[in-house]
Amino acid sequence: DINVCVPSSGDNLAAFAFYLLGAKVTSCDISCKQIEKAEKIAQENNWSIDFKVLDSMDLSSLAADSFDLVYTSNGVFVWISDLYVMFGEFHRILKQDGSYIFFETHPFNRPFDDNDNRLKIVKHYNDIHITGKLSNYHWRVHDLVNYLVQSGFRLDYMDELLAEKDTIGATWWNLSEWDSKSDVLQN
Fold first, then answer.
1. In this predicted structure, what is the pLDDT of residue 111?
2. With 58 labelled, which of 20, 84, 89, 147 sits at a CA distance of 20 to 30 A?
């Protein structure tokens, strides 16, 4: 069995998918509500997934060198205030020959707003910490790559996929949409 950790698991779709593919899965999220919802779904389907309420920047209750794969999906990094610490935790819990895979929306779209169907710049690309109703972080590509490498990872492959607004959902929200949806995002 492949031992997979899905930190910042959110809706747990990735955790469920890895389990259904035959992996032994540990799902971690800082939100008690997200974990409770996922546990209920897993119980209803008789799926054996280990759920933990944990912050991705502090996985100290997980044993070092215990996972074959750590996976994070789209939208995780905007909630993380210290990528170096988070990536360090991922590196620590991975087996020596383990892999970390992530999928993330390209940060290039975050400086723009299109509320009036005209694309306009509303923030500088280098403005990383954004505060409004909901505080989040708009990391740049070089932040992700540099912190990964500094945390001990070796980059094997990187791809930049095309994205369209109607196909990637919440990760395409402009800054005003993030603020208007803050109640939904916090649950």
1. 58
2. 20
In tens, the pLDDT along 77-108 reads 888 999 999 999 999 999 999 999 998 765 66
User: How many CB atoms lie under 10 A from the CB of residue 88?
Assistant: 18
pTM of the model: 0.80
Question: What region does 39 belong to: left with phi over 0, alpha with psi -120 to 50, or beta?
Answer: alpha
186 pLDDT more than 80: no
The number of CA neighbours under 13 Å toward the Cβ of 23 is 21
Specify the 3-state DSSP secondary structure of 65: coil
Pairing of strands 112-113, 120-121: antiparallel
pLDDT tens column, 23-81 = 999 999 999 999 999 999 999 999 999 999 999 999 999 999 999 999 999 888 888 99
Rounded Cα gap, residues 143 and 147, in angstroms: 6
| H/E run at residue 24 | strand 24-29
What sections of the chain are H helices per DSSP? 13-20, 32-44, 83-93, 141-150, 165-168, 175-180, 182-186
* Burial class (CB within 10 angstroms; exposed 0-12, middle 13-18, buried 19+) of 47: middle
